[in-house]
Design a protein that fits this description.
The protein is α/β, with parallel strands linked by helices. Helix content is about 35%, strand content about 15%. Helix 11 (about 340-350) packs across helix 12 (about 355-360) and helix 13 crosses helix 15 (about 500-520). The chain is globular.
Length: about 525
């Protein structure tokens, strides 16, 4: 009897151990896949193709379905970087147009777990970076399935061109990188359940260009129903647009983007789209191209209008959002500049609003100009779009919008300039990737803030509400009350930060929007 009891208990223990193993093998629509273990509780799949390689005649076309494979595809190595400028640690052999892969980190032990899903869209100014930078395993360990998506960048991802528009047949071109993101989200809907994820509970989140992408997806009819919550870290797409190529503070229509595409063709001394398609990818996106700035455009298809107007009219994908900016975003982009040159730049940017801009962002000394430029860059590029997003959704949406402000003092930053006064652009990544959590003795305050942010983020991904036991209560945004959650030596509610500067940018953008709309009506 004891012998049989021992066998029974041992068998049950074995079954429990087997059930608690990470989900290292599963199936997707194109074949079987096998991941690798990260510790004892996570399965990681580093490179699953979600679309066909956009090469040859598929260059500058919408993504197409990936081809099936035979046998088991072992996903133990990240896919290549999209073509972009080389730099230290990144060489041409690490890049390829065949870049439409995604990575998954899952704590699920069964395909039946139905865990919340978080889909990461990386930044890089729509020109650089890679989906394999981080699979956010610290978030995954809190009970969510993480998906990280690669998309086409630079000229290959965002060049519009009259020949492409004609070739398309529906009258639009450009925004291929955004179409990649949407295609990946459709793939997630069809396949993520096989990784223990819940396709009815998907949160998109991103930083910088990834946050701008999230913002665009929140207003694109093509992305409707593909996600259910959104977290933006330093980015939003609410600037006015014109029929000219994109410039600082002014997005481009497809017509303006097509003009940029023609200028690019002329720069490369090519006569046609056919010749451009024959070029090596590095010759289009590499370090020595000498032409850049490709960006999403208002094409009437992915992006239907000025997003500010869309939100005013309530024409967007109304989902709960968290929108966060950093206290000194512009420190990463600012530089030493003479006061007289600074004034010329400000007058060139703000035109008739330049005198007010110089009062709002003074620059009478080299140091003052450094901070003036940085603060103007912060507010125009990140802080004002974030304010526009939460304030408009608070007025016209049914879903809550939560505002956050990261201001934690730290010696660690992506900005090397000693004049930095706060949290620089991209520093928020350090609070998600374990940089501070792994060094609590060296960074005690930052580690505590990282823990708080991660708890809020995961609570939000699970329920659409960041609040939870042991955390300071975080209400949805109300501009008349202290509802912005500031992360600095803990978490506490404040009124909207940098109010005077943001209100100035708001007035400037209002005038610019009315000017561009008037021009389009002529």
């Amino acid at each position: 009897m004891r012998k049989y009891l021992f066998i029974l208990v041992f068998g049950l223990l074995g079954m429990t151990a087997a059930q608690s193993q990470p989900l290292l093998k599963t199936h997707v629509e194109t074949g079987d896949v096998e991941g690798v273990a990260d510790g004892t509780t996570l399965a990681v799949y580093k490179a699953i193709p979600y679309a066909a390689p956009p090469v040859g005649n598929l260059r500058w076309k919408a993504p197409q379905p990936a081809k099936p494979w035979q046998g088991v595809r072992v996903c133990d190595t990240f896919g290549p970087w999209p073509p972009q400028p080389v730099r230290q640690g990144l060489t041409p052999d690490m890049m390829s147009e065949d870049c439409l892969y995604l990575g998954i980190a899952t704590p699920a032990t069964s395909a039946d777990d139905r865990l919340p899903v978080m889909v990461w869209i990386h930044g890089g100014g729509f020109q650089t970076e890679h989906y394999g930078g981080d699979l956010w395993k610290y978030l995954a360990l809190r009970g969510v399935v993480i998906v990280s998506v690669e998309y086409r960048t630079g000229a290959l991802g965002f060049m519009a061109h009259p020949e492409l528009t004609k070739e398309n047949g529906e009258g639009h071109s450009g925004n291929y990188g955004l179409l990649d993101q949407i295609f990946a989200l459709q793939w997630v809907q069809r396949n993520i359940a096989n990784f223990g994820g819940d396709p009815s509970n998907v949160t998109i989140f991103g930083e910088s260009a990834g946050a701008i992408s999230c913002s665009i997806l929140c207003a694109s009819p093509l992305a409707k129903g593909l996600f259910h919550r959104c977290i933006s870290q330093s980015g939003g797409s609410f600037a006015p647009w014109s029929d000219q190529p994109r410039s600082l503070g002014l997005d481009a229509s497809q017509k303006g983007a097509e003009a940029q595409g023609l200028a690019f063709q002329k720069h490369l001394k090519k006569k046609s789209l056919k010749e451009l398609r024959k070029m090596d990818s590095q010759a289009l996106c590499g370090k020595d191209v000498g032409f850049g700035g490709f960006w999403p455009c208002v094409d009437g298809y992915v992006i239907c209008d000025d997003q500010y107007r869309l939100y005013e009219r309530g024409e967007y994908n109304d989902v709960p959002v968290i929108v966060m900016t950093n206290s000194d975003e512009g420190a990463l982009f600012s530089h030493s500049i003479k006061p007289e040159d600074y004034e010329k730049q400000i007058r060139g940017i703000f035109g008739s609003y330049a005198d007010e801009a110089l009062k709002t962002y003074p620059g009478s000394t080299v140091d003052e100009a450094f901070h003036g430029f940085g603060d103007a860059f912060r507010d125009m590029g990140f802080a004002w779009p974030s304010y526009a997003w939460v304030s408009l959704q608070a007025k016209t949406g049914k879903s809550p919008a939560y505002a956050a402000f990261l201001a934690q003092p730290s010696t660690r930053s992506f900005s090397p300039d000693p004049r930095r006064r706060g949290v620089a652009h991209a520093d928020d990544i350090l609070y998600l990737n374990g940089e501070f959590l792994n060094q609590p003795d060296k960074y005690p305050a930052e580690s505590a803030v990282a823990e708080i942010i991660q708890q809020y983020w995961v609570n939000f991904a699970k329920t659409g509400n960041p609040n939870g036991k042991g955390l300071p209560y975080w209400p949805s945004f109300d501009d008349s009350k202290p509802t912005t959650m500031q992360f600095s030596n803990g978490a506490s509610l404040i009124m909207r930060p940098n109010r005077e500067q943001i209100d100035f940018v708001d007035r400037y953008y209002k005038a610019k929007r009315e000017e561009t709309e008037s021009q389009r009506k002529r």
